[in-house]
Amino acid sequence: MAIALSGSALLTTTTATAQDGLLEEIIVTAQKREQSIQDVGITITAFSGAQIKELGFEDSFDIARMTPGVHISGNNGGQKTLFTIRGVTQNDFNDQTEAPVAVYVDESYVAFGQGQVFGLFDLDRVEILKGPQGTLFGRNATGGLVHYVSRRPTREAEGFADFTYGSYNQIRFEGAVGGPLSDTVSGRMSVLYSYYDEVLDNDYPERFVTLDGNPLEYGGEDTFNDDTLGLRGQLLFEPNDDVDVLLIGSFARTREGTSPFLELPTVPIFDAAGNHVGTIVAGPNETREAIAPDGTPIDHPLSFDADLLRPPGGNLYGPSCTPQDYEDLECGMDFAFEDLNSTDTWGVQGKLTWQLSDSTTLTAISDYKSFEKFQGLPADGGPASTINVLFEAEADTFTQEVRLNGEFDRTRWVAGAYYLNIDLETGVSITADPQDLFLPLAGVPWEDTALTQLETDSWSLFGQLEYDLSDSLTLIGGLRLIRENKDFVGEETFFLSTDPLTLETHTPLFSPQPQRAHTQNKNLWSGKLQLDWQPTDNLLVFAGINRGVKAGGFNAPFTFGAGFPPENIPYNEEILLAYEAGFKWDGLFGGTTRLNGSAYYYDYEDYQGFFFSQITGWVQNVDAEYHGVEVELFSSPTPNLSLMFNFSWIDAEIYDVQIGPGIFVDSEPSFTPEIQLAGLIRYDWPQTVFGGQVYAQASFNYADEFWDNIRNFDASLMPDYFIGNLRLGWSSADDHWDVAAFVNNINDERYFTIGYDLSNATGANSLVPGKPRWFGINVRYNYF
């Protein structure tokens, strides 16, 4: 599908009708060259920079809520958020795992999962490509990709300042200035500052539970906040009409409190062999620690007692969040600190574009990025002092792409080479301090730490050819050949804990997983074969098969001292055969309407499913089949009225999911609502008001219920949600000023985006809440 909207679609002025803007052509680079979005036989959604502003998208993952078939997954209390496209996802919290939905910024791959979370500012557009995209894009894009494109320096002086003040003392400033620096050089500087106070109230120590009966002397801060700064500088050199060189430097830093959680008391189900085979939500009067499949109370292995009882409606050890706490967005969390979590990113990029002839262009892109992060969160999200989790990672990535684009007679082609290097060091630790209820595991304050090093080198050659079989029929074929080398070193060690906020690597106690080295050297390939048929100027029909591949990897779990089978540390590449047919139809009902749609069938071999149990997780290869349909409709039935509606449906099944030795079930993928809906209606008053134009806009998005765990235990079913948004604004006739008031989540829906089943560790599930109702006012000034 394609949202073929330009910025004016949501910024209609007194000199342009809503109908003109809604159906205006938008240019994308989904096939490594500029094309109208309606001429590309790929299912694409695109948002312009103006639409990003008008729809209230502030973070990189906000685009998911208005994009059919796209949802979010993630971990770390929601502070590491990833995309799910058509049920293709990967929510492993270990940072050495790459996502199957690739994210690009200005044609450069973001290899580090945490690097996919950033504030949006000064963008030209964002493109969301669905289905395998490995032929032309260099990395792991079995599910699809998301490409953010910055606004480029211009030969005309221009700039803007955009200020928002909103709920929770939100202050958001976005600005840019650019223009010519000489006859051949242009520049642009962009900045973002985003801040809001804590959303989640913490009432600790009202319901505290510790080993010695005294509340902790630290922690207990409110959570769910933001403090982000982003900078981008660009220089564009144009020595002649044939050559240009673009240099980009960027920096971003985020400081946040401890990851936000709300705790849902749950009861694990164990079979006679002690396998965790299910989880149910604990009712307000629930007192069983754990149950057998027939409901009989049994001992929880981590209760450290034999009474088989928990406090009524609480977690395994004491009181917990209540339904009223969910409504009020408050709970008690012991491990909660202000500005504990941090991410820092910087990068440099150079892009050469050289018009070798009228029909051939050379493009070379070099990119280097550096990432650092530290995150800490409570395992349970409640007031009992159980265990906490710390994440620390550093990653350096370098990519180099060289490609040629050309055309002759009835043929268009692109060919190139790509190289990727990732140098990654990570540490993940679960900790127990002197007052921790889990102290009996080792007898002293301890940290169970998994340390990993991963070096990745990937080389590939790629090409795609489009040949016009006739004036209306085009054959497209593409191929990418990949050489993938990975060197991995991992270990798990219990250390003596001396600081609850530090990931310990000194004073080892014992090592359940001694250091082991693993290597993967693989030859991989992806390919594409498709037919595009254009029977009329305003209708494109396409059908094809796409083979996507995502390289294998390595598990690095912490195991509570139980160890992990060495043969399960490596896992294989996943292979997706995607069959898809679709259409893009313009000019309906007198040129007022556009309708796009597609249907697909996915045949998965060795899907890299993420399994989570007790307090750890790992990736395991399984097979799967997906079926789905997506539809998007855009219409301007009158010159001042704009309508948009999209719909997606998916039926997905993963086969032979193991929930215990010899116990296999079929399940649904995590973070994949069966039905998603989104829509928008906008009216621009034709009458002039204070020398400008008034507009009103309403939008909504709906997501069906979905699982947060591939095991599909009952308590892991996240409820559906509906979110509505309103915006009322005024734009000056000269387009210099825009003033708007907005309400997001106007119905104040309580919903959850991410969850983890910790019933086998703490007798509760952890849930990450979405943002509540949010009021604000936005003022923008454009200079040109």
Automatic annotation (TrEMBL):
<dbReference type="InterPro" id="IPR036942">
    <property type="entry name" value="Beta-barrel_TonB_sf"/>
</dbReference>
<dbReference type="Pfam" id="PF00593">
    <property type="entry name" value="TonB_dep_Rec_b-barrel"/>
</dbReference>
<dbReference type="Pfam" id="PF07715">
    <property type="entry name" value="Plug"/>
</dbReference>
<keyword id="KW-0410">Iron transport</keyword>
<keyword id="KW-0472">Membrane</keyword>
<keyword id="KW-0406">Ion transport</keyword>
<dbReference type="InterPro" id="IPR039426">
    <property type="entry name" value="TonB-dep_rcpt-like"/>
</dbReference>
<dbReference type="InterPro" id="IPR012910">
    <property type="entry name" value="Plug_dom"/>
</dbReference>
<protein>
    <submittedName>
        <fullName>TonB-dependent receptor</fullName>
    </submittedName>
</protein>
<keyword id="KW-0998">Cell outer membrane</keyword>
<dbReference type="GO" id="GO:0009279">
    <property type="term" value="C:cell outer membrane"/>
</dbReference>
<keyword id="KW-0812">Transmembrane</keyword>
<keyword id="KW-0408">Iron</keyword>
<comment type="similarity">
    <text>Belongs to the TonB-dependent receptor family.</text>
</comment>
<keyword id="KW-0675">Receptor</keyword>
<feature type="domain" description="TonB-dependent receptor plug">
    <location>
        <begin position="37"/>
        <end position="144"/>
    </location>
</feature>
<keyword id="KW-1134">Transmembrane beta strand</keyword>
<feature type="domain" description="TonB-dependent receptor-like beta-barrel">
    <location>
        <begin position="306"/>
        <end position="746"/>
    </location>
</feature>
<dbReference type="InterPro" id="IPR000531">
    <property type="entry name" value="Beta-barrel_TonB"/>
</dbReference>
<keyword id="KW-0798">TonB box</keyword>
<keyword id="KW-0813">Transport</keyword>
<dbReference type="GO" id="GO:0006826">
    <property type="term" value="P:iron ion transport"/>
</dbReference>
